[in-house]
Please model this.
Amino acid sequence: MILVTGAAGFIGSNFVLDWLAQSDETVVNLDALTYAGNLENLVSLEGDVRHIFVKGDIADFGLVAGLFAKHKPRAVVNFAAESHVDRSIHGPEDFIQTNIVGTFRLLEAVRAYWGGMEDEEKTGFRFLHVSTDEVYGSLEKDDPAFSETNRYEPNSPYSASKAASDHLVRAYHHTYGLPVLTTNCSNNYGPYHFPEKLIPLVIHNALAGKPLPIYGDGQQIRDWLYVKDHCSAIRQVLEAGRLGETYNVGGWNEKPNLEVVHTLCAILDELSPRGDGKPYSEQITYVKDRPGHDRRYAIDATKIERELGWKPAETFETGIRKTVRWYLDNQDWVANVTSGAYREWLDKQYGA
Ligand code: NAD
Ligand code: DAU
Model:
């Protein structure tokens, strides 16, 4: 039995689906179901006794302690977070609450549970914290990619809150001996990605005939990884990672945003051409830049490759094509998540 937090979100739901496709070990899914949490992602698990869903907050010590007492998981994988940089700029409070206070309370509940275990169980227990490359700040054009020894230099309220949570996880290992692991991953893309983030937003807006918003000059660089490859990295770190260590996870796929958007437009031109025969790239629109926008992220994934033998299965070319196909085949999912609350967000962010 493992406890996975935030498993109704984008990466967490992909993780649970992949986990149960490969193992019969039960997953307890603790998720607060914020705007980003969606049980529809897990509809294929309906009636499956290996998936136990609990609606709740990681900051609720009593609830989490009760789940530990009842289910006795051998590991916790913590995905639960506020994850969108632009939302953190409009309203940082939720990010402080979930990413910092929530992680702290979860760690406290884990510490109490782990402290009460027999020695053998204690040795086998793991707390895996899922974090981001954004904690390292922004790279210049010719800087080497982020390695695990890079200094933390977070620049947005989101990345600062994730950095704080990483520090707490580290401290619980050094101070209390808690058996922790941390992964710092680059930008994910793939199925069930909420259409507030660049790739699903562009696919959605393109098909809806709306502008494709490019912040600033569109030359900011992100290092893209197909979500299933992130999930396989987490499974491998959980299985064989060295306690107290951090592992950078990335796909060696650095791309400027504008290139990503042009690639999406070209695939859509081929798979679902516009009615008027014109290219989707005509919808590209330059908009005001994100305040404090990090220019470049890039992950050096040497450590996880060398120590754990992990490698991504998808290239950007194969992964992005699968992703566009998934969105074309799952327009109902998109229609359901682009609700009233979603439209309010678009008004706030893009003045649409
Ligand atoms: P997401 O926003 O899609 O999902 C987050 C999930 O957490 C949602 O289901 C939400 O309901 C849940 N949640 C939020 N607050 C909660 C709380 N207080 N208690 C319980 N559940 C709560 O995020 P994602 O993109 O799937 O990211 C998952 C994790 O991976 C995050 O920690 C994020 O920082 C990290 N990460 C994301 C990326 C990426 O590209 N998306 C890359 C690297 C790391
Ligand atoms: O690097 C890992 C991080 O990647 C994760 O920790 C975050 O949770 C995840 O949201 C993601 O953060 P980004 O800010 O990089 O992702 P986003 O999809 O919001 O933006 C990707 C790039 O595209 C970024 O440079 C901003 C730009 N952008 C984004 C949107 C939504 C645009 O140009 N236009 C847009 O409309």
Residues 93-115 form the longest helix (23 residues). Residues 5-6, 8-12, 30-34, 36-37, 57-59, 79-81, 83, 98, 102, 130, 132, 162, 185, 187-188, 194 surround nicotinamide-adenine-dinucleotide (ligand 1) (CB under 6 Å). The first strand starts at residue 2 and ends at 5. The mean pLDDT is 97.
